[in-house]
């Protein structure tokens, strides 16, 4: 239940978190905001960008700012599921041998799954259960992840040869897909200065506690959203389907599959979290607009004609936004 | 600042009003378009607005009122209205959220915090639901058409008679020019003097600045039975005079009767003929009524024929019959009589042939009246044989029994530089006597 005190405390904590992460990361404010929102909404984020843009630094800074356990997994083609989940190993104690589960790197609070598309589908699937259920099953035992839990996966948009593109089912489990763009001139100068002078990049100290995050999560769920705005989100998601009456012509022409109901849930939760970050007490259409693209861009599947013509999903989403009105 | 509930009430009231206008316009739009089309056709075709249009006006008003009531009274979905108001006023879903949390006890404490997002001075509800052109255009159209039609109904019919006084420019044409203007088929129009119309020099042309009536111009055209022109000062003799509609009708009926009686086998008047004569008798002056009574009481063919001939040869009787009002159906009866006779005696001329020896129609010798009748103007162009003589062409090829066609007359009249309205009146006359076509 949301109270005024909780609302104020959560808003204050998040402001501190944003400030702490922002001190380390140059630019990428939208990516930072997206990862914070995902943390508040119990979601996961897929970060897409060429190497060297600071994706790992963003995740590390976030993990340090929330004072939680951080784990980095570098996915390679020879990585096995047990390498990330953990496995039972034989241990000997008091003259007795027994199997003891040795937790893998998945058992942390903030997981950086680097270049996830380089791992085999089998290993990728091992990540699925942890991402969605927050549990891992080894043998007959199910192990629960510690909250808060967030998986931040990265993938390289170039060098797709020899990789295993994430299947649609797995992509749908990511709340956001955020594109990490190349910094502009000013940002690049700042980055180079920070990394070449003084002590280099220093990760931020913890700005909030685990309890603050859990409180903020409960406050986010309590942020009210008008029924008309909720219906608006439904129309937006439906408009991504070619057979929907809300769909614009381009969707009908180039989209094979639209977004699932998971997208609507993600959009509403993300809008609530964004409202809280903005200091608002209710969901506004501007909050929907902020999270619209990142919640849907990875959930649309183009048909053959769309792929052949190189249609951009971002352009299709722009048409959806223009076509569907709030009232 | 007003409380949310008061704001909601104001917005709802405004929304209902605009909906009432929209419904009223929509419901009456169909009638309004019908009204527009009907009124336009009526005005363009110069007919007066019929009673049926008034019924459409009534239906439009009723439907409009029904729309107003429905728009005001039907329930509204307040959350949708408030969301529309949020969008119109750019309030970021504040109003709709305020309304939603009223029903959530755990969120009610957020009311003041969310309400603080509203402007201190809330805009007028009309800004949330402004008057949109597409909503009120139908309503305004229907209202304008209803009022316009009610006003137009009072406008008299556009078919008016040509006023008596019309300025006519002086006619300055030589006889050579006149003859050059006549069509080739108008040779029959030539009078025995070898001249189709009197010389322009014989006409007393008015001053160009003085308005001159048709009667004044034609009163200077005086021809005797022989076709020779006479001075305009020789009044009381062979000059044209107007005929009344009833006189022509009675005369034509009597002439038809004369023909009928002269035929073998017809001894007495038929019941239809008697009924027609009775209609005239009832409204005729005493001398005309007496003459008609004598005719109806004729015991045999020769007596009836004598009475008819006496009537037709008596100018006084014909003059008196001009005071008659037009009997209802008399024209139809006259036409029916003519039609019957035509079908029975197709080869016989319907009325007395008044053409001269050369077969050319002549002007009727009569006296010029002191006052003009209402229909006197164009009647001056009437020649005795013009409307009724059989056409020179074979009957099958001829669409009318006019010896003189309007096109022939038009050529002559245009040479006289008469006003267009005068020409229209003459054409209307020919259309009338030709039964719709000349």
Index terms:
heterodimer, A: 327 residues, alpha/beta, two-stranded antiparallel sheet, B: 438 residues, mainly alpha, 18 helices, 2 strands, rod-shaped
Describe this structure in words.
With 327 residues, chain A is of the alpha/beta class. Chain A has 14 helices and eleven strands. In chain A, the strands form four sheets. In chain A, strands 2-5-8-1-9 form a five-stranded parallel beta sheet. In chain A, strands 3-4 form a two-stranded antiparallel ribbon. Chain A is globular and about 70 Å long. A two-stranded antiparallel ribbon of chain B has the order 1-2. In chain B, helix 3 packs antiparallel against helix 4, helix 10 packs antiparallel against helix 13 and helix 11 runs antiparallel to helix 12. About 25% of the residues of chain B have low confidence.
SSE order of chain A, one letter for each helix or strand:
HHEHEHEEEHEEEHEHHHHEHHEHH
| Strand content bin of chain B | under 5%
Instruction: Report the portion of residues of chain A in β strands.
Output: 15-25%
Number of helices of chain B: 18
How many DSSP H or I helices of chain A?
14
């Amino acid at each position: 239940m949301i109270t005024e005190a909780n609302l104020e405390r959560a808003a204050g904590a998040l402001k501190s978190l944003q400030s702490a992460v922002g001190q380390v990361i140059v630019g990428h404010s939208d990516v930072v905001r997206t990862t914070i929102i995902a943390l508040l909404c119990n979601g996961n984020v897929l970060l897409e960008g060429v190497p060297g843009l600071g994706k790992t630094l963003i995740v590390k800074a976030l993990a340090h700012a929330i004072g939680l356990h951080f784990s980095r997994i570098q996915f390679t083609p020879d990585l096995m599921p047990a390498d990330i989940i953990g496995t039972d190993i034989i241990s000997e104690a008091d003259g007795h041998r027994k199997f003891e589960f040795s937790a893998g790197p998945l058992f942390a609070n903030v997981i950086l799954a680097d270049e996830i598309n380089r791992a085999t589908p089998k290993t990728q699937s091992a990540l699925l259960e942890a991402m969605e259920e927050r549990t891992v099953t080894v043998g007959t035992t199910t192990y629960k992840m510690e909250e808060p839990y967030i998986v931040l996966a990265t993938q390289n948009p170039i060098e797709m040869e020899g990789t295993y593109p994430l299947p649609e089912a797995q992509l749908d489990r990511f709340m956001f897909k955020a594109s990490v763009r190349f910094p502009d001139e000013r940002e690049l100068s700042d980055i180079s200065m920070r990394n070449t002078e003084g002590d280099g990049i220093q990760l931020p100290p913890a700005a909030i506690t685990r309890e603050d995050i859990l409180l903020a999560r409960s406050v986010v769920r309590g942020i009210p959203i008008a029924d008309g705005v909720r219906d608006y989100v439904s129309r937006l998601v439906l408009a991504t389907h070619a057979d929907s009456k809300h769909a614009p012509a381009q969707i009908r022409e180039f989209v094979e599959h639209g977004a699932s109901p998971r997208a609507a849930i993600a959009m509403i939760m993300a809008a609530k979290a964004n409202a809280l970050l903005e200091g608002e007490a209710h969901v506004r259409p501007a909050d929907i607009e902020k999270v619209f693209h990142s919640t849907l861009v990875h959930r649309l599947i183009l048909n053959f004609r769309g792929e052949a013509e190189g249609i951009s999903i971002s352009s299709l989403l722009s048409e959806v936004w223009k076509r569907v009105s709030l009232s | 600042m007003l409380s949310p509930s008061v704001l909601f009430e104001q917005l709802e009231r405004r929304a209902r009003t605009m909906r009432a206008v929209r419904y009223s316009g929509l419901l009456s739009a169909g009638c309004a378009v019908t009204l527009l089309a009907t009124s336009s056709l009526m005005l363009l075709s110069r007919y007066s607005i019929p009673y049926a249009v008034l019924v459409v006006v009534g239906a439009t008003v009723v439907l409009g009122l029904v729309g107003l009531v429905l728009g005001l009274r039907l329930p509204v979905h307040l959350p949708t209205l408030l969301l529309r108001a949020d969008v119109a006023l750019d309030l970021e879903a504040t109003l709709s959220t305020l309304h939603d949390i009223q029903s959530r006890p755990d969120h009610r404490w957020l009311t003041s915090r969310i309400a603080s997002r509203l402007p201190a001075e809330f805009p007028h509800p009309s800004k949330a639901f402004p008057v949109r052109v597409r909503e009120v255009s139908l309503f305004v159209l229907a209202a304008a058409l209803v009022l316009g039609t009610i006003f137009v109904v009072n406008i008299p019919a556009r078919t008016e008679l040509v006023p008596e006084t019309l300025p006519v420019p002086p006619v300055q044409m030589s006889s050579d020019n006149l003859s050059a203007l006549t069509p080739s088929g108008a040779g029959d129009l030539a009078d025995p003097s070898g001249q189709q119309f009197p010389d322009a020099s014989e006409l007393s042309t008015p001053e160009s600045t003085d308005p001159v009536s048709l009667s004044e111009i034609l009163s200077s055209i005086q021809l005797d039975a022989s076709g020779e022109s006479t001075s305009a000062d020789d009044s009381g003799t062979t000059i044209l005079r107007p005929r009344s509609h009833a006189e022509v009708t009675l005369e034509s009926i009597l002439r038809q009767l004369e023909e009928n009686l002269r035929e073998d086998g017809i001894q007495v008047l038929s019941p239809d003929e008697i009924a027609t004569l009775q209609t005239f008798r009832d409204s005729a002056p005493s001398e005309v009524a007496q003459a008609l009574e004598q005719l109806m009481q004729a015991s045999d063919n020769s007596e009836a024929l004598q009475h008819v001939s006496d009537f037709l040869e008596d100018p006084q009787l014909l003059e008196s019959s001009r005071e008659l009002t037009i009997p209802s159906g008399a024209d139809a009866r006259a036409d029916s009589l003519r039609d019957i006779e035509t079908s029975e005696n197709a080869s016989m001329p319907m009325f007395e042939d008044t053409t001269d020896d050369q077969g050319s129609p002549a002007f009727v010798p009569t006296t010029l009246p002191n006052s003009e009748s209402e229909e006197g103007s164009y009647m001056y162009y009437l020649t005795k044989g013009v409307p009724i003589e059989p056409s020179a062409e074979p009957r099958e090829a001829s669409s009318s029994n006019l010896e003189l066609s309007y096109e022939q007359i038009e050529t002559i009249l245009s040479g006289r530089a008469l006003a267009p309205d005068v020409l229209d009146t003459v054409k209307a006359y020919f259309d009338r006597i030709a039964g719709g076509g000349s």
